[in-house]
Design brief:
mainly alpha, Tetracycline Repressor, domain 2
Length: about 210
């Protein structure tokens, strides 16, 4: 059992390295221009090492999507489950979401922009099952936010409208950071925190009910 666990950890570490390296290349050059050769070269590895874990770059691309959603769920779900008012909970969830967008930019940017932008308009039918799985993960994640928005509306602090509809501009405000944000060579954690706080405050203003007294 111990040996099996060690082998599983090694495989997980190896796949994580491939995913992170591939995410940087997908982010910079797009899906079509990325090859297994390019990923291997960036890693200083052979193509055989990549193919040991993945049969195609599409599989790597989908694992980037899964990694991104796992990161977000692990960071945000514990906050969503806390027994605190929605007006306190939602900005903390949003802050964690944005913090991951900025600190894990290659993986998160490819996840936000890639699923629709790259290969799959032409070849999506070949990956329909996997696309459905990843879209379900996205829906579950958005639903957490929708439920908190709905709770806030019932508490009288958020506008009363379709919670799922309201998640769209809310996420739009946050996810747009993957379009314009460029890490600087000299950038502190405080700089990232400032960006997160500014965007969260802006997104929250769009949800608050002006008649709610906040």
């Amino acid at each position: 059992m111990a040996k099996q666990k060690i082998n599983q950890e090694r495989e997980s570490d190896a796949k994580n390295e491939i995913v992170r390296t591939a995410a940087e290349i997908f982010m910079n050059y797009g899906y079509a221009a990325t090859s297994i050769d390019a990923i291997a070269e960036k890693m200083g590895a052979t193509k055989g090492r990549i193919y040991h874990y993945y049969r195609s770059k599409a599989q790597i691309f989908f694992d980037i999507q899964r990694t991104a959603m796992t990161q977000l769920m692990q960071a945000v779900e514990p906050i969503a489950q806390e027994k605190v008012p929605a007006e306190e909970k939602l900005p903390r969830m949003a802050w964690e979401h944005l913090s991951l967008m900025l600190r894990e930019l290659p993986v998160q940017k490819v996840a936000v922009q890639g699923l629709e932008k790259y290969l799959f308009e032409a070849e999506g039918f070949r990956h329909a099952k996997t696309l459905s799985e990843i879209n379900a993960l996205r829906d579950d994640y958005e639903q957490m936010f929708a439920e908190v928005i709905d709770a806030g509306a019932r508490e009288g602090v958020f506008v009363k409208d379709s919670p799922r509809l309201l998640t769209k501009p809310f996420f739009g405000t946050m996810n747009w950071v993957t379009v314009w944000y460029r890490p600087r060579r000299i950038q502190s954690d405080e700089d990232i925190d400032t960006i997160c706080s500014t965007l969260v405050d802006f997104a929250m203003r769009g949800l608050r009910d002006p008649k709610g007294g906040t």
